[in-house]
Here is the input.
Amino acid sequence: MRILAVIPARYASTRLPGKPLLSDTGRTLIQHVVDAARQSQRLHQVIVATDDQRIFDAVKGFGGEAVMTRVEHVSGTDRVAEAARILQYVQHNDLIINLQGDEPEISPVAIDTLIEVMAKRPEAVMATLATPIHDEAVYRDPSCVKVVKDDGGYALYFSRSPIPCHRDGKPEAGMPWGFLHIGLYAYRGRFLQQVATMPAADLENAEKLEQLRVMENGHRIALGLISEHTPGVDTPEDYARFVARYKPGKAD
Here is the structure.
């Protein structure tokens, strides 16, 4: 099984323009993501997929691998699928990890856990991660995506709403409020190309969650659990907090 991590990266961002190239730590944000991914024990290749020459040049400048993709892509998944085609990771036994370009503190353990989920489930065509929610505010925050799962380890539904609904007002003692979805995905190579051709679906349009397109088209998503998640960078405030947390040498 060949395993490729693709990091889609655009220069344009509504809330934080030029995000991949921010460098207050002495390294660009996109380099932090690449460096974190390179610590994985299971990945064979890490590549940045972009439509911006500045990002492409920056990645090449720090010794990373990058491919130029089309400008027209409406989602990161489409960009990842094109990169996989360019690199010819399109067979069923190929595994592609979609790693967001705004996750500079992503744990290599989380990446390897996701890969292990797919390795143990040869029937699974796609997988993602979740972590228990112990904070009620996170459970009720629509910007925090929740997922419910079945006993077999597959997702039943993803939602911005607080799911499951606790009829008595709170979960049983010692139980989490629910599970927070972690936006890290694994796809079989052939299935990823299929996903890129699927039309948007009703639930996806309502929730604005792209993974629901896969489920509405009749496919299952395997779910791996990790103990905690690392924060992404979506806003200037997020980036300032990351810079404050950063310690040189941590991801070297």
